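Is this the right way to post structure tokens for a design question? Let me know if I should format differently. Anyway, here goes:
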């Protein structure tokens, strides 16, 4: 937490802003990439969204109040950027967000960065059938092992609601995997 506060202070005071920002990117790049990748599915799309996320963080760091962890604030930006990306892609292709995700999942088999097997693909298909919030909660808990407390901060909702969403998501995924 001390390291985070120090980075924020330096970024907000514009002291060595570019080199401090590089440090911030190094610290969070991988975690944010996998969070975004869990939502948009494709490596190239995740890379684009990650860049947009860091641009937003850079431009808006002076708005960071410190009432949440920097990590949570950045995750919120990454989540919103990912959802905006899916909405934009859906609009361009004139299809629903669900169809965009299904297209991405179908393309996973040809994605050189996807190392999953048949089970992983099946799991991704099951996750794609969940409502958006359940997808987010499931990915954050199952793949990233984010604590409900932090998740509540990122998604701005109660821990109880998140636990319920995760429980429902798990049941739906289990049912899908058993029946398909």
């Amino acid at each position: 937490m001390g390291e985070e506060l120090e980075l924020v202070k330096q970024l907000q005071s514009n002291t060595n802003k570019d080199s401090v920002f590089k440090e911030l990117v190094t610290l969070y790049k991988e975690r944010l990439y996998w969070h975004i990748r869990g939502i948009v599915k494709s490596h190239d799309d995740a890379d684009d969204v990650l860049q947009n996320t860091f641009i937003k963080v850079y431009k808006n760091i002076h708005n960071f109040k410190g009432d949440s962890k920097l990590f949570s604030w950045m995750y919120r930006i990454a989540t919103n950027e990912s959802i905006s990306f899916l909405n934009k892609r859906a609009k361009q292709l004139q299809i629903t967000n669900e169809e965009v995700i299904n297209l991405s999942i179908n393309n996973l088999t040809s994605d050189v960065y996807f190392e999953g097997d048949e089970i992983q693909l099946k799991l991704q298909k099951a996750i794609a059938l969940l409502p958006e919030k359940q997808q987010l909660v499931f990915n954050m808990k199952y793949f990233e092992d984010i604590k409900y407390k932090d998740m509540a901060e990122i998604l701005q909702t109660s821990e109880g609601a998140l636990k319920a969403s995760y429980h429902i998501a798990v049941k739906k995924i289990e049912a899908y995997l058993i029946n398909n």
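Format looks fine. Someone answered above. Worth noting: The mean pLDDT is 88. The chain is about 80% helix and 0% strand.
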